[in-house]
Structures are given as C-alpha cells and as structure tokens.
Design goal:
By secondary structure, the chain is of the alpha/beta class. It has a single domain, classed as Rossmann fold (3-Layer(aba) Sandwich). Helix content is 26%, strand content 25%. It contains six helices and eleven strands. The strands form two sheets. It has a nine-stranded mixed β-sheet with strand order 9-8-7-10-6-1-4-5-11, with helices on both faces. A two-stranded antiparallel ribbon has the order 2-3. Helix 3 packs across helix 4. The chain is globular and about 70 Å long.
Amino acid sequence: MNILVCIKQVPGSSNVEVDPVTGVLKRDGVASKMNPYDLYGLEVAMSLTEKYGGTVETITMGPPQAKAIIDESICMGAKCGTVLSDRKFAGADVLATAYTISQGIRKCGEYDLIICGKQTTDGDTAQVGAEVSEYLGIPCVANVLSVDDVADGKIYVTVSLDNIVVKESVKLPCLISVDSDINSPRLPSYKVKKTLTDDMVKFISFADFEDQDANHYGLNGSATQVERIFPPEKNTEKHSITGDAKEQASGIFDVLKSRKLI
C-alpha cells in the first residue's frame, strides 16, 4: 500500500505579527514547525503500512526551508519526501495551492491513498484536501475519526458528520482528511535523523510540471485574494452584574440593548 501524506510548514507560534502595509504574515525570523494536524495524518499512514505493508512518502509546498518538515516526516517513518518550491507558486490561495499540489503528486507517481490533516493552523480553511482530490479525480472523505480496515480495494472509515457518526467504504485510490481525535502521533527518531541523506528529499519546481501555464499557479492562478489581514483589537474591559437571577438577567439585557446588539 503506497501512501502519500500532504504536510505543511507553519509558524511555530500563534503570536505572529501582520505587516500593516501588505497585510500578510511576517514569517521572517519566526520559528516554524510542521502543521499539527499533519502529524495525525502521518501517524495514520505509519499505522496502516505497519498493518498492511507498503511505504509512506510526504509532500509539501513552500520555500526551500520547508525541507525541514520533510526531514522530520522521514524521522517519523516516511521513506522519502518532495518539496514543491518555486517563486511562481507564491501568493497562492487554496485553489491555486491545491492545483499545484495535485500537479506535484502527478509528477511524483501513483498512490493508493493520500492523507491530509483536517486543516492548517495558519489558514484554517480545511479546503485544500478536497480540492486536491477533485483535481486528481479521486474520491475524498473528510473528518475521518478512524480507519477501520483496508480490504478488497476499499478503505473503511468512521466519519464525523457534525450531529452523527457514520461508517463509510471508499474505493481506492482516494484522499482522506483526518482530525486530531484519530490518534497520538509518534515522536521523530533521533537515530533516523543521524542517517538522513540529501537523496531522501526531492525538489520539484514549475519547470518540472506538465502544465506550463503560469496563470494556473501562485497569485495568477488564485480565484480569490486577501485584501487585508489585521490582528484583532484586544479589549480588557469588564463589566460585572450582581444580584439575583432576575436582576442579572435585566442587567445583561440593558447592556446588550445599550450596545445595540438587540
């Protein structure tokens, strides 16, 4: 069973400043880490290959330094990984990002299963996984709580649909997005880290893609653009309402009415 896990390098802290002129996150000098949700996807992949056999590979899109999370994934058990890196990919929204990743996957080979984390902590859109599957023309299942079995060319999963939990079977190849409740990720191996070699990580650029239309990538290929990003204003104002239940309810009503919320 050949599994590919999509991972992303994100800021290591939630305390990231926003450039007031460009409206984008200031990533320079900010420590980075692997997107936490992707760690759960990696653990699912490792567990499946331990049970059913096969290999795990990883793929990411980002600047050259994104190689660090590919190295980390290898230390967790992946066989190798790929970094999609090119200036033409910069400024991509979720649609252009998904298209770029789909092109990278086609370049890397064929897989029985592609796994994504539920979402990324720097974007929180939870859209890329589904869009990648659409570009690849394979089924997608989101909010996977557990992978129950793989048999007869199908994967059997338990899925959360907000108010209900359902069991589904999906024909392989397919893509699944997993949530944080699915497992506890393993730690990277220091012994493996000492054996890392450059040939374990492959870099792919725009020139390597079959689709050479630059208008499909990066800012040019984005259907949406963020006009402005700004940090929320912090308000430490407090208002306490005392008294019995009736007095407190009346006080809350007066506050909401004075602020024209009701």
